[in-house]
Request: fold
Amino acid sequence: MLTSLLIPIALSAVALFFASFLSWMVFQLHRDDWKKLESEDEFLEAVKQQNVPLGSYMFPGCNSPEEMKSEEYQQKWNNGPCGVMTVFPKVNMGKKLGLTFLYFLVISFALAYLSTLAIKPGAEFIVVFRFLATAGLLTFLSATVQHAIWFHNRIIGHVIESILYAVIVGLIFGLMWPAA
Reply:
């Protein structure tokens, strides 16, 4: 049955990719996710002088649970600032866009597979829509919320996108579900 869902899988991936483009570039749901530092030039120069390698960093940082319990670390934590910083190479937009499409393709395939375990051919649109939209919402939203809890990133745009993505997947599979 999974082979009968190859067209909705591909169509979902394309539709999700296009919806992602719209949310970022047209509706700009993530416009306020990242703020510019007021003293950006000074900050960039300080980071350059530190020769920070690519990676993700937490500050203040520690290398062990014992160090985290130390008075020195606790004082740094209490005095602030505290945060997370990721240093990455120059962005290769083609690669990022390709990986994003691949992500949507893999998710669409996984949702299609999951649906074949629960829904029989010939099921009504609303049954397919509800199942896939719910599974899609759990897929797209769950990791974002947990990440925001720990790292304080803004998630409003991600919540809106997740709902939209779930509806898109539910509609496409609901409309193209194989007959009995």
About this structure: The mean pLDDT is 94.
